[in-house]
Structures are given as structure tokens and as C-alpha cells.
Amino acid sequence: MKIVGIFNSNEDSVGYRLAGIKTYVTRQENDLIKVLKEVREDLDVRYYCV
Hints:
The chain is an alpha/beta fold. It contains 2 helices and 3 strands; from the N terminus they run E-H-E-H-E. It is 44% helix and 30% strand. Helix 1 (10-18) links the parallel strand 1 and strand 2. The two termini are 18 Å apart.
């Protein structure tokens, strides 16, 4: 089981990475769509927050 966080700045994601949560940083809508598709297709991901 994986928990994933999607953020728009590196500063917001630091604490989550320290807690062992996989983070993605996206600043553009196209990148967000790609990351969401990737996360939703990964069967190990149980929770994600945007």
C-alpha cells in the first residue's frame, strides 16, 4: 500500500516526504493530469491527496 501526495510547491511536500509518503510536485495542469493518471493506474496506491 502506498500513500501519495500531489503538491504545487516543493516546500509543501517536504514534511510528507520525511514521513515516507511519495510526493509529486506539479505546477501546470498538463503535468497534474499526467500524474493523476499514473497514480490512479498504480494498484498499490490506496490514498492520494491533491
